[in-house]
C-alpha cells in the first residue's frame, strides 16, 4: 500500500482508515458515507495506471484536448493514482497542478514539486478561489458524484476557471455495446452491466457520460464539443489502431470487471461471492471473445468559460 506521505498537510485520520472485504481494500470514510465503492489498494492503483496507458493510445498521447497556450494552474478532480496530474506537471514545469481525491491511498509517495494533492469530497462546494485555473479535468468520477450534485459540480468548475479557461470531462458508459449487435440479454457482459449500473440507482448517475454536453451548455459553458469514442474491450477490431487499443485494454478490462462491481454487487446487492465470481469469469471470457466485438462507450466533452 502506498502511503499518503506526499500530502502537504497532516491528514485527518478519518481519511486513512481502510476496510478489507473479499480480499480488496476500501476507504472506510468513502464507503460509510456512500461516496465511493471502488478498491483503493495497490492492485487498483496499478489498474488505473494501465487504463491511463490505454487512454494515451486512445487520445494519441494528448493529455489536454482544448487549445490552451499557457498553463499556469490546472485542477484534476478525482486524481486516483495521480498519473495524469504528474504527467501534466512534468510536461509543464511552470504550471502548478492541483489534485483532489477523497482517497489519498493510491497516489505515489513522491510527486513533482509543482503537484499539490488534497483530500476532499467533490460532492461538496469547491474551496478554491474564483477565476483560479486555466484547465479543470474530471475523469471517471461518475460512480463518486451524487446524481443531484452534477449541475452544481459543473457550476463550481466554471466558477474556479479563469475567463476563457477550459473544462475537460471524460466518462465511461458501462452499458456494454457490441459493434455487430451480437451481445444479447443472455450474455454475462450484459448482466454485469445491468447489475452494476443498477446497483448505483438511485443515488449516482452512471449514464452521465451521455449528458455531459447538456450539463455544460446548461451552466453557460461555450465552445462545447462532445464525442463518443468506442473503447474496445479486447483486440477484436480489423482497424489496426482500434485493434492496438483493444489489445492494450484487454488486461484493464479483465481487472475492471472484477474490481468495480465487487463491492456494489456483493455488499450493496448481497450477491453471494461465488455467484459474483462466476458472473465475472463469464464476462471476462466474453470480453476477450473477438466475435462479440464488445466495447464501452467513452464520452469526452470540453467546454470553455466565456471571456
Ligand atoms: C476510477 S478512478 C479515476 C482516477 C483518475 N481520474 C483516472 O482517470 O485515472 C476515480 C477516482 O475518483 C475518486 N473519487 C470518486 N468520487 C469522489 C468524490 N466524491 N470526491 C473526491 N474523489 C472522488 C476516487 O477516490 C478515485 O480515486
TrEMBL record:
What keywords sit in the KW lines?
Answer: Methyltransferase, Transferase
Q: Does the keyword Methyltransferase apply?
A: yes
Q: Which SUPFAM superfamilies match?
A: S-adenosyl-L-methionine-dependent methyltransferases
Set out the biological process GO terms recorded for this chain's protein.
Answer: methylation
Gene Ontology molecular-function annotations: methyltransferase activity
Name a Pfam family for this protein: Methyltransf_23
What highest taxon heads this organism's lineage? Eukaryota
**Record has Repeat as a keyword:** no
Q: Which PANTHER family match?
A: 2-METHOXY-6-POLYPRENYL-1,4-BENZOQUINOL METHYLASE, MITOCHONDRIAL, METHYLTRANSFERASE
* Full protein name: S-adenosyl-L-methionine-dependent methyltransferase
Source taxonomy: Eukaryota, Fungi, Dikarya, Ascomycota, Pezizomycotina
